[in-house]
Amino acid sequence: MQRGIEFLGSEHAILCGAMSWVSERNLVSAISNAGGFGVIACGAMTPELLDAEIAATKALTSRPFGVNLITMHPGLFDLIAICARHQIGHVVLAGGIPPKGSIEALKEAGAKTICIPPTLALAKKYLRSGADALVIEGMEAGGHIGPVSTSVLAQEILPELSGDHLVFVAGGIGRGDMIASYLEMGASGVQLGTRFACATESIAHPDFKKAFFRANARDAVASVQVDPRLPVIPVRALKNKGTEEFTAKQVEVAKLLDEGKVDMGEAQLQIEHFWAGALRRAVIGGDVENGSLMAGQSVGMVTSEEPVAQIIAALMEECEAALARR
Ligand SMILES: Cc1cc2nc3c(=O)[nH]c(=O)nc-3n(C[C@H](O)[C@H](O)[C@H](O)COP(=O)(O)O)c2cc1C
């Protein structure tokens, strides 16, 4: 983990991946205070809201934390300016190819850029474009996912790139034994989301947490795409009425597309807004029936509410024990 620790400035190279609505001031500061690396999920926040969230997080921790920006946010460069003003050290660019000038703007602001490539070719491209580190995230993860599993991405990308570059592995990690394996393969550290979503310090609604504690790996299913003309990025979430509604929403938007009432960009935006609204309903409102319970397959290993420090300590202990057994 040493390279990852030096890069992040944290005690352990364990990132808590940004989770929209969940990764706000409380969880982010708790993660960083416990020696991990917290990341604020900017999601669809306005620059003013991000400004306030960063300031509030800084009030709760003096340790380093990062900010996750979605590349298709219409105000991406304004958000980068907010990060620059707060001298945020690390920015994760998620949700697709970073637009021209974004990595340069972050560099100018003195921030390190972390990108999330879905393939080896894109990983190389992002590094050529100036990315300082990569997170490779497999389809076991919660939230928006790619089509390839973490184990295959790790085999494709770590041997090729981890010698000269910082690569963190995400998706499906629930125990320290798995962390040990990825470190052995060359990873500089790991990123977890699902395992931290229900920590004591997480503001997620008690019913959202209960749904996680009850769920098994097989309950965390990837959404299906109903219309080949309307490519939607799959989302992994616990199955409920909300996942069915998403299928209905796609049919509705595809019809609008057919009738020429919306263009492709607008259609995809409507889909993304659906997710953002549904996730808020579940995380904040506790509507576990109709809301979106984004969760990874590691959800089966989340069985009770634990303080972040306890989760990190358990992961590190399991990791060390696994390495000692070797
Ligand atoms: C509820 C939830 C919301 C998420 N929201 C985001 C997000 O806004 N941006 C992002 O880059 N990743 C998001 N993710 C992915 C996490 O940052 C992280 O990479 C992922 O959870 C790691 O896999 P795991 O869930 O198997 O631990 C989300 C994941 C979950 C579970």
Task: Give a written overview of the molecule.
- β2, α3 and β3 form a beta-alpha-beta unit.
- The two termini are 17 Å apart.
- The chain has 326 residues and is α/β, with parallel strands linked by helices.
- It contains 13 helices and twelve strands.
- It folds into two domains: 225 residues, Alpha-Beta Barrel (TIM Barrel), CATH 3.20.20; 92 residues, no CATH class.
- It has an eight-stranded parallel β-barrel, surrounded by seven helices. Strands 7, 10, 11 and 12 form a four-stranded antiparallel β-sheet that branches.
- The radius of gyration is 19 Å and the shape is globular.
- Flavin mononucleotide (FMN) binds next to β9 and α9.
Set out the fold topology.
Blueprint: H1 2-8, E1 14-16, H2 25-33, E2 37-41, H3 47-60, E3 66-70, H4 76-85, E4 90-94, H5 102-108, E5 112-115, H6 120-128, E6 133-137, E7 143-144, H7 150-161, E8 166-170, H8 176-184, E9 189-192, H9 194-197, H10 206-214, E10 220-222, E11 235-238, H11 241-258, H12 264-283, E12 293-294, H13 308-325
Parallel strand pairs: 1-2, 1-9, 2-3, 3-4, 4-5, 5-6, 6-8, 8-9
Antiparallel strand pairs: 7-11, 10-11, 11-12
Helix pairs in contact: 2-3, 3-4, 8-13, 11-12
The chain binds flavin mononucleotide.
Compact description:
The chain is of the alpha/beta class. Helices cover 45% and strands 14% of the residues.
Low-pLDDT parts are none
Q: What level of helicity do the residues show?
A: 40-55%
In sequence order, what are the helices and strands, one letter per element?
A: HEHEHEHEHEHEEHEHEHHEEHHEH
Give the C-level CATH assignment of the largest domain: Alpha Beta
Summed up, the domain count is 2
